[in-house]
Amino acid sequence: MNTLNDTVSSTYESSVNNLLDRMGLEHKRSTMDMMLPALGIFGAGIALGATLGVLFAPKRGEEIRSDLRSQVGQLREKGYDSYEQLRARGNDVNVASIAQDGDMKKATSASQAE
Question: Collapsing DSSP states into helix, strand and coil, what is residue 27?
């Protein structure tokens, strides 16, 4: 039964492919037919890059990790300093807008009193 099913299936597929070929068309490829080779190439590229990175690394792993820790610490400090500057600037703007809003309310109430 399976051989008959396989024979009919392969005959049908070859007939469809022959018909499409005669019409100048081709069978539509599924998304997986296109994605799997691309993912395979991407994975091979990652593996090759990691291997070459380890082979040509100018420092030992311990030294690289230490350098990365210090750079991350410096970035964290810069980020915190920038945050504090923006926060102070925001507070200044907020105080100025509150003062300006208070002045506008006084002017409005003075003009309404007249």
Answer: coil
How far, in Å, are 57, 61, 81 from residue 47 at the CA level? 15, 18, 38
Map tokens 């593996």 to a residue: 47
| H/E element, 25 | none
Query: pLDDT of 94-113, one tens digit each?
Result: 777 776 766 656 655 655 55
Residues 6 or more apart whose CB falls under 8 angstroms from that of 16 comprise 27
pTM of the predicted model, to two decimals?
0.37
**What pLDDT, on a 0 to 100 scale, did the predictor assign at position 29?**
75
Q: Cα separations (Å) of 13 from 8, 18, 31, 53, 74?
A: 9, 9, 19, 47, 63
Spacing of C-alpha 24 from chain mean position: 40
